[in-house]
Amino acid sequence: METATKHDQILHYIQSLEIGTRISVRAVAKELGVSEGTVYKAFKDAEISGLVSTRERIGTVRIDRRRRETLDALTFGEVAEIVEGHLFGGAAGLDKPLHKFVIGAMELDAMMRYIDEGSLLIVGNRDEAHRCALEQGAGVLITGGFEPTEEVRRLADEKELPIITSRHDTFTVASMINRAMYDRLIKRKIMLIEDIVTLSRPADMLRTGDTIRDYSQLSRETGMTRFPVVDDRGKVVGMMTAKDAVSAADDTPVDRVMTKHPITIAPNISVTSAAHTMAAEGVDLLPVVDRNRKLLGVISRREVLDALRFAGKQPESGDTFEDLIWSGFVVQSEERDKEGLGFVYKGIVTPQMSGSLGMVSEGVLVTLMSQACRRMIRELWKRDYLTESITTYMVRPVEIDSEITITPQAMEMSRKFTKLEIEVRDKGVLAAKAMMTAQMIDPY
Does the pTM of the predicted model rise above 0.70? Predict the structure, then answer.
């Protein structure tokens, strides 16, 4: 209990600090009279909660708590980490997002026309450009390992706009940042539990001292039959269901009949992963907990499936490796198999698909077969799946520039599972074959 109290004390102390304040484990431990180990654990929780940001060569800085929906744009702090930069001023602005970056390879007057509030100027050792950019509300990234002047550092602190230096050249840092922005677009497609669960709203729950009578009353009030059970610290220690309550007397404590060591999930896991856990374990409700198993909220199977349906209707943003591999393959609708159980897909094997021996990579072939199955199931049954196992047979090598056909067929299909057979043919000759079993989900 004493450690938990000190832990909360440290978090309250961090919250009381001004945004932009740099802190260290050693300094906080000395200030509060606690061990460095306890402070380190609290720092980790504070970082997860969005109270501080810890970055290499910058240290730990008090930041504004940000909701995930604002994380689509890179922050100056993230840019500093990406380019392996050092911070020389404006620590209070590390958490600010940037909406674009400008390469300062032009005259100063022309450069200023492109710089506005929230942008990042990437430039070399040009003191006047550094100062003007900060005056315009932009952060500054100095390339080539040069350092800013004392005047510019003071201005950065005053404006709360980071000024960062990197040893890399302008082209390299621009490429690094552009790649990170592109990756962020892809991450926007991945919906997490924290995106759909209101973690600030208290969840319906029971405590270890409650009885079956309390369970029955809560069930009548909410219309639910499944509740997490927490101890006096708020940690999830069990799950109480109607099955657990059968034949138990009204005055029986719930901790005697509850299901102990229940399955829980973290707020930062994907909704798809939660759907898989629910289906595999046969549960309709999961407690959402923090790293200390304290209850943050609950999520139901219906909420997960509704989220998957919503995500499936959103436009794609950014191409993954799977998207790039599949590009160029099209469905030949006129060649749909006569029983209506599959499509035939055609495409050209490009040089980028080659392996070390100059033939198409085995891994690429497996990806192509999996993508063909996914597209067929989405088209025919408006569903999706999670692969459980796939067995592949490479019959003959496929040369670059070959036109191949991929034919997936559903051998078995039920509400929960499917078994598929996939064939790859090169010039009409069997080149590869696979057998796949998958768990079905309903995102549409």
Answer: no
